[in-house]
Amino acid sequence: MPALDIFNSDAFSVINLTQAINDQPHQPTKLGDMGLFEESGISTTSLMIERKGNALQLVQTSPRGSIGSGKADDKRKVISVSTVHLQRNDAIIADKVQNLRAFGTEGDLAAVQNVVNEKLGDLRRDMDLTLEWHRMGALKGLLLDADGSTIMDMFTTFGLAQQTHDMVLDNDATKVQIKLMEAKRKAETALGGKMVNGWKCLCSNEFFDAFVGHAAVATAFSRWQDGAFLRDDPRKSGFPFGQVLFEEYVGAVGATRFVAANKAYLIPMGVPGMFKGHYAPADYMETVNTLGLPYYAKQELMRMGKGVEVEAQTNPIFFNTQPNAVIELSI
After folding, report:
1. Fewest beta carbons within 10 Å, which of 67, 86, 189, 330?
2. Spatial contact of 311 and 320, defined as CB atoms under 8 Å apart
3. Cα separation of 75 and 72, whole Å?
């Protein structure tokens, strides 16, 4: 049977455990799967964003003592944004590996690694859900913690105002395509001429049902593919209307839904630098000043050799540099 000293091998170093948790299967999450955010690692725990008028851009780092970027004039503002620390802990007690038997050609090391990987998989799923929650908060311009407290209000931080639009879907006479174009114009104005290569709308189930069920939408699709729109369930794959792809977003943490009832969010797609995500390095000696990774994992022997503590963490910050260009739609 495997001895607890097995955890002193290189297989359970911070490097190998970090690689293991990053290799865990990704939990399906719509925003993560969409690739909406440009995500990368940084070597610090904060970064600077420069705002000039309504335009926001990252400030390039420069070596200490060197000449930095040009002096900002009165119309420019430099904003500091800090990453957040998300950590989960678990443990593998001695009894968990006491009666472990190697299967087939697996040795004791491989068998114990399976136990560790199960733990890392559980921790990874919690973090995937949390990262999706943060992406959605950044999309909406209000990044909230698990307890509902505010991590970052992008409208206040960037000096912008949220834009909303009433689609008037409770009236059969509403010209839905006109209302949709009005919402798109609000986003285009906020973007100040930046190129948009597509549109997507993430909807609550109430909004999705109201939109699909509106007479103008149903009539427009009554002959599309021999009425397939009226027969099929378009929630998962979405459906195009007015050159916008409408999709129902299903997700909640307890009673808190990712997209509130009766709401939807109109998103300009393909705008360079609009949706950003960065990962800072872990707070370990081994990772100081290194380029941040999405996930880290480490283990430590318990007192008196009673077991092994396993820790997983991620240090992200997600933000929307133009939150006023994402339009909150209502029924």
Report:
1. 67
2. no
3. 8
Which residue in this structure is represented by tokens 């909004």?
207
Nearest Cα neighbor of 239 from 263, 204, 208 is 208
* Residues shown for the chain: 331
CA–CA separation, 264 and 247 (whole Å): 9
Q: Buried b vs exposed e over 90-106: b needs ≥16 C-beta within 10 Å? A: bebeeeebeeeeeeeee
pLDDT digits (tens, 9 = 90+) for 19-49: 777 776 656 578 888 889 999 999 989 888 8
Using only C-alpha atoms, the chain has a radius of gyration, in whole angstroms, of 24
Q: How far apart are CA 245 and CA 31, in angstroms?
A: 14
Average pLDDT score, the chain: 82
Distance CA 330, CA 30 (A): 21
Per-residue CA distances from 95 to 4, 45, 57, 304 (Å) = 10, 38, 53, 14
Measured between alpha carbons, how far is 244 from 248 in angstroms, rounded to an integer? Answer: 13
Residue of 129, 131, 147, 136 whose CA lies nearest to 202: 136
Q: Two tokens at 8?
A: 């002193």
Residue 103: pLDDT over 50: no
The answer to whether 243 and 3 have CB atoms below 8 angstroms apart is no
pTM here is 0.82
The per-residue pLDDT for 66 is 60
Grouping H, G, I as helix, E, B as strand and the rest as coil, residue 99 is coil
pLDDT tens for each residue of 47-100: 888 766 555 556 656 666 565 555 445 456 678 889 999 999 888 777 666 655
CA dihedral 326, 154, 38, 187 (to 10 degrees): 20
Question: Is there a contact between 316 and 330 (Cβ–Cβ < 8 Å)?
Answer: no
Query: For residue 43, what is the DSSP state?
Result: S
The reported pLDDT for the residue numbered 204 is 95
Helical H segments across 60-204, by residue range = 94-98, 108-140, 154-158, 176-191
